[in-house]
Amino acid sequence: MEYSPPGMANRQRRPWRRSGSEPPALRLDSEMRRGTSRVLEPAAAAQLAIARRAKPSSVPDHVRLVLTLELRRELAEKLSLKAIKSERNIEAIVIGLIEAAAKRWR
Predict the structure, then answer these.
(1) Is 2 exposed, middle or buried (0-12, 13-18, 19+ CB in 10 A)?
(2) Can you spell out the DSSP letters for 64-94?
(3) DSSP 10-75
(4) Which residue from 63, 40, 39, 38 is spatially nearest to 53, judged by alpha carbons?
(5) What angle do CA 6, 9, 11 make, to 5 degrees?
(6) 55 to each of 14, 20, 44, 70, 82, how far by Cα in Å?
(7) How far is CA 4 from CA 11, 12, 34, in A?
(8) Which residues of 63-91 are buried (b: 16+ CB within 10 A; e: fewer)?
(9) Looking at the whole model, is its pTM more than 0.90?
(10) pLDDT tens per residue, the chain (106 residues)?
(11) How do the domains of the chain map onto residue ranges?
């Protein structure tokens, strides 16, 4: 009998891992898997990038996208001051700024 670490003996593998293919949600069309390059439209490329990089969120219609920002100390302190004064966290401040900028792009 082969040794299994505790809790691993009855663990089942995901079916897509058994076959060696990608998970169904991220499957690319056959042209891209064969190595044939093609240029995607920007909207399709953006959807594919988020499908690959973002994780599902507990909030409906949202995704969890983790970013690491390297900011000048002065800017980070200004953002922190704004967050403290408005009694919100710095993430909410940055999201608000991004959403405001996105409205101007339309």
Answers:
(1) exposed
(2) E--------HHHHHHHHHHHHHTTS-HHHHH
(3) TPPPPHHHHHTS--GGGPPPHHHHTT---PPPHHHHHHHHHHHH-EE-SSTT-EE--------HHH
(4) 63
(5) 110
(6) 18, 21, 18, 22, 28
(7) 10, 13, 37
(8) eeeeeeeeeeeeeeeebeeebeeeeeeee
(9) no
(10) 556 566 655 555 555 455 555 555 555 555 555 666 678 899 999 999 999 999 999 999 999 999 999 999 999 999 999 999 999 999 999 999 999 999 999 8
(11) 23-58, 67-106
Q: In the structure encoding, which two tokens stand for residue 93, read together?
A: 């401040």
One-letter amino acid of 89: N
Q: Residue 19 is encoded by which pair of tokens? A: 């076959």
